[in-house]
Specification:
alpha/beta, zinc, binds adenine, A/AMP_deam_AS, 356 residues, globular, zinc ion binding, TIM Barrel
Length: 356
């Protein structure tokens, strides 16, 4: 909870989350519980793995994206059966519900599981089970996005895309889009043109991490060569005026993750992010948690609060951010209309009483 007078509004806003890696919702507690259940031996040469508290401490001092990813990939080694994936996703959905998420579009990393012998169907069925339950018990709608890992060869992404189970999940609409994540700097987006072209032929939605640690130029090549509909992070677009204008003109949504950027040392503090500049330039963006279990257990509302404490936005500006998040979502038009209606009823009194 933040000290802002508009905290109750922030809590109640019907939020759309577009940038959350389900594997990044694996808390140290759940990690240890699943490791014990599945008899997975955690690394013995790293004292951080001695206890959940040790991991909590270690997660406070990541010095880069790659330092975090090292722990992220070890962490997911405890996920074996469909129930484990369901447990993980359900844990995220309950936090999301508490924070006022109405709709979310969640990432998964199939190659990271298939590469250690876990079937795509196992991963998918666990996540699907949790999604169904989230809709019926929590009223949260969701979509699933399969990310390709940019530290693996582009041919690996293509081979994964071509697997029958993967193609079937796209064709059936169980997975509506593709993304690109993992280590950014040495792996520019254009390396992955072939798999994105295949995604385009299948009518999939497309997004890619770009401009997190990598340069603004990666945002441009993601747009030009991968034909993405949105950009994950994208904060370094601020270094290129022409590109910033293009992102605004083309209504490209940036899925910004403020607390993640601080934990991974992209910026020193949330106040260093270009939030005010994005608003002034008419850039559409949403605010997201990225890997909440690794970044201080800060889910979406904590990210909204961190932005509010740094930028002291008005109620009208928050409503505009939420409107942009709904417009930029990949849900049905009918669902968007429901979300707009909820936003209108929540925001109405605030917009008429001015900012507290
Ligand atoms: N913030 C991030 N950037 C790139 N890849 C990721 N995978 C999980 N979180 C990520
Ligand atoms: Zn991410």
């Amino acid at each position: 909870m933040c000290k802002s007078g508009i905290h109750p509004l922030l809590q109640r806003l019907p939020k759309c989350e577009h940038h959350i890696h389900l594997e990044g919702a694996l808390t140290p507690q759940v990690l240890f519980t699943l490791a014990a259940k599945n008899r997975i031996e955690l690394p013995t040469d790293d004292p951080a793995f001695a206890s959940p508290e040790g991991l909590v401490e270690r997660y406070r001092e990541f010095d880069s994206l790659d330092d975090f990813l090292h722990y992220y990939y070890i962490g997911m080694s405890v996920l074996l059966d469909a129930g484990d994936f369901e447990t993980l996703a359900w844990d995220y959905f309950t936090h999301a519900a508490a924070d006022g998420v109405a709709h979310c579009e969640v990432f998964m990393d199939p190659q990271a599981h298939m590469g250690r012998g876990i079937g795509y169907d196992v991963v998918l069925s666990g996540f699907q089970q949790a999604r169904k339950r989230a809709e019926s018990e929590l009223g949260i709608t969701s979509e699933l996005i399969a990310c390709f890992l940019r530290h693996l060869p582009p041919a690996d992404a293509v081979a994964t895309f071509e697997q029958d189970a993967v193609r079937e999940s796209f064709a059936a609409g169980h997975v509506i889009g593709i993304g690109l994540d993992s280590s950014e700097k040495p792996f520019p987006p254009e390396l992955f043109q072939v798999v994105y072209q295949k995604g385009g032929f299948m009518g999939l939605k497309r997004t890619a991490h770009a401009g997190e640690e990598g340069p603004a130029a990666y945002v441009r090549t993601a747009l030009d060569t991968l034909h993405v509909d949105r950009i994950d992070h994208g904060v370094r677009v601020i270094e290129d005026d022409a590109l910033l204008k293009r992102v605004a003109d083309e209504n490209i949504l940036l899925s910004v993750c403020p607390i993640s950027n601080v934990f991974l040392k992209g910026v020193q503090s949330v106040a260093d992010l270009p939030i005010r500049k994005f608003i002034d330039a008419g850039v559409r963006f949403s605010i997201n948690s990225d890997d909440p279990a690794y970044f201080g257990n800060n889910y979406i509302l904590a990210n909204y609060c961190a932005v509010q404490e740094a930028f002291n936005l008005t109620a009208a500006e928050w409503v505009a951010i939420c409107e942009g998040s709904i417009h930029g979502s990949w849900c049905s038009q009918k669902r968007k209309e429901e979300l707009f209606e909820r936003l209108g009823s929540v925001s109405h009194p605030w917009l008429h009483q001015g900012d507290a």
